[in-house]
Amino acid sequence: MQTGPRPADFADVRATNLAVVLRYVRANAPCSRADIAASTGLNKATVSSLVADLIDRRLLRETGLTEHRIGRPATMLVLDGSPYAAVGLEVNADHLTAVAIDLAGNRLLSWRRSFAGATATPRKAIAAIAGVARKAVARIGGEGKQVLGLTVGVPGLVDAKGTVRLALNLGWRDVDLQDGLTQALGAPDYPVAVENDANLAAMAEYRYGPYAGTPNLVHLTGDLGIGAGIVVDGRLLRGGQGFPGEIGHVRVAETGPECTCGRRGCLESVAGIAALIRSVAPDALADGPLTDLEPEVDEVVRRARAEEPAVLAALAEIGTHLGHGAAILANLVNPEVVVLGGYFARLAPWLLPRAEAELLYRTIAPDSGGCRLVVSELAGDAAAVGAAARALDSVDAGDLPRLAV
Ligand SMILES: [Zn+2]
Q1: Residues 374 and 335 sit within 8 Å (Cβ to Cβ)
Q2: Distance 262 CA to ligand 1 centre (A)
Q3: Among 246, 245, 248, 243, which residue's Cα sits nearest to residue 271?
């Protein structure tokens, strides 16, 4: 199978038209060939030929249902895509998440594996990530699916070559993750990519979340670090070198603690999960860095439900800082929604009241410029879902797969 961007294909009018038809059906299914022709301006013979090609590639299928309009019955078309899938991995300080999704949007697998991200050397980390990726690819290959791509999300600055320039919570600097993984996987016939986790989470929300298609959307990762994936006018904001959205290192507390970046009072130093645990369960940090955050968050939820005053006060303070961070985003990019991901999603009932008040107070536009704070339904694996979606998005963009024979 040939994969990856092929510039000649993008220049090809037919490939462009195939993508136009595919996107139309994604948005309007079930629909007929005549609907496609009427809405895209392509003539009926061309649409029939494009649809035949897409059915051949099993990207579309006929439903068997027909709709009687004026005159002849029309056969209705829907998306297929079930033979194709992509794998997404998310690297965290304490665990790896893997998901696989087919082009029809079905989740094929969801794994969580413990991972010593904060203490492993990059070499060991690459071996561990490659191990999980290999198993996930083998699993979906065994189910007869063709793999369109593997993308790995990392909490840090990732450049265009897939090099992790800086990932503070993993202790990584200049790790050639994309090259390292490609080698470890034996130069596979599907593309391997590496991307910032917040960007991927925003892409997941934009494609699959309840606010899918919202043109101005931000996803905030809530983990050890806090990053913003920013969609503006329907496009992911990439900036000059691919490093926007580092809201976690904007100073929000004048007298705040030292951050992992060496500065003081950064948003993640006062609202990241380590700050929360330091404040409500200092004993948990007595034995060194946390190796599994999930049980700690479970405990905070339990104590918040029991209305322990110290826990409620800590959550209210984090909510205030979070609202401050959201207001910075609202003042700069005026999003319609800021989606709270990661552990923020589980703690949202206690964070939201103060966060919403702070957002309103600090945003210059009336009513926070229409910005709403909402809770991610993808939460824990948004970045992994977005990582899988990245390869699937390339199909919508015109890089159409053909079934291997
Ligand atoms: Zn910082």
Answers
A1: no
A2: 6
A3: 248
Q: Looking at residue 86, what is its pLDDT?
A: 97
**Contact (Cβ atoms closer than 8 angstroms) between residue 276 and residue 282:** no
Q: What type of residue sits at position 236?
A: L
| 67 vs 82: CA distance, rounded Å | 24
What is the CA(204)–ligand 1 centre distance, in A?
Answer: 26
Six token digits for residue 395: 């199909």
Quick: pLDDT tens for 159-210.
999 999 999 999 999 999 999 999 999 999 999 999 999 999 999 999 899 9
Centre of ligand 1 to C-alpha 397, Å, is 36
- Å from CA of 112 to ligand 1 middle: 28
Tokens matching residue 308: 């322990």
CA distance 223 to 209: 19
Residue 150 C-beta-side C-alpha neighbours within 13 Å: 26
CB contact set of 366 (below 8 Å; sequence gap of 6+): none
